[in-house]
Amino acid sequence: MKRKGFTLVELLVVIAIIGILVGLLLPAVQAAREAARRMQCSNNLKQQALAMHNYHDTYKVLPPMYIHDTAVTDDGGHWAWSAFLLPFIEQQPRYDALEVGTAKARAKITTNPELFQNPIDGYRCPSSTGPAVHEPGVDAGYCIDDINDTNTGVAVTNYVVASNIADLRMKRASNMIDGLTGAIGIFSRGIKGEPTAGLRDILDGTSNTLMIGERFHSRAGGIRMSGGMMLVARDNLSRGPTARDNPDNTATNQGVMSLAGSARYPINVVMTPSENASSTKKMAFSSLHPGGAQFAAADGSVKFISDTVELSNGNNGGGWTVDSVMEALIGMQDGVPTSL
Fold it and tell me: What is the DSSP secondary structure assignment for residue 120, as one 8-state letter?
């Protein structure tokens, strides 16, 4: 009498078929998850752009890239654009507790470090990896000193404002098509005598000018791409990165680079482990979304820009003037309105 059931060979065949089906379905599941993460990231950018507009409705200007506090000592902190948006992203209690723009950041991080270190979901891309807080032992230039000169980590953000096409500058450009003369994008520092930009200053059109872009935070493969600093910028003179008022107007590494992005390098530029310490490639826009990164334009729309978008990358006769699509999208008064 025959017994009903599977033979060993039949069972192995069934297992193999199931394995093949799982292998076929897994990429689709992963793609669906990434699509959901990308949609959430897009929503984050949309909310930040709306917050920028609400800030503008209130103050008639856009927030500064950061407020340059001349009283801040080396390695101290300056209040950044993401701090000024707090009341407009449902973070009024944190804004009030920080006393943004009034209190010194280094004093507040001494008494209330959690206000700087607790992440805000709207400032993090769900696709980005890495810790939620910058680690002083790894990213000293992305932390600030408290009043005891203890280097203290602040939360990571994956969003930076669009500022320039060359090395990052603190001041507004004197020639709005030349990135060597200053920031040709919307955002520059805020300081007495240097008013920040308003929507009226975006002569190329708000739909054609980028406002905020992505930057991922990762340690994969020995690469240190450090994202951005949430709420503050570091004023660092001794370690190379700087947000100080340098005579040459430069701010080429952490500090201002932790708040703003530049089109000096292509989106998702490749960086090697040997470039980790001081590479200016960290000022590039980047993401873990395949093929490019997302940006919010000044009209509030969100755009995905391919990492193959036209970029002259300073190859226009050795200069840093606007002559490519990505550069034109950064500049707000370059006279080259470009849309995607």
Answer: -
Residue pair 68/191 in contact by the 8 Å Cβ criterion: yes
> Model pTM greater than 0.90?
no
Q: In 3D, which of 160, 150, 168, 159 has the Cα closest to residue 75? A: 150
- CA nearest neighbour of 182 among 198, 166, 201, 169: 169
Beta strands 143-145; 232-235: pairing state:
unpaired
pLDDT, tens only, 283-333: 899 999 999 999 999 999 999 999 999 998 655 555 688 989 999 999 999
Is the per-residue pLDDT at 149 higher than 90? no
Q: Which residues contact 245 (CB under 8 A, 6 or more apart)?
A: 68, 70, 170, 191
240 token code pair? 């190379």
Contact at 8 Å (CB) between 311 and 324?
A: yes
Q: What is the DSSP string of 132-187?
A: SB--TTT-GGGEEE-TT--EEE-BEESEEEEEESSS-BSSBPSSTTBGGGSB-SS-
- Which single residue is written with the structure tokens 């980590």? 153
Q: Any idea where the domains of the chain sit in the sequence? A: 30-329
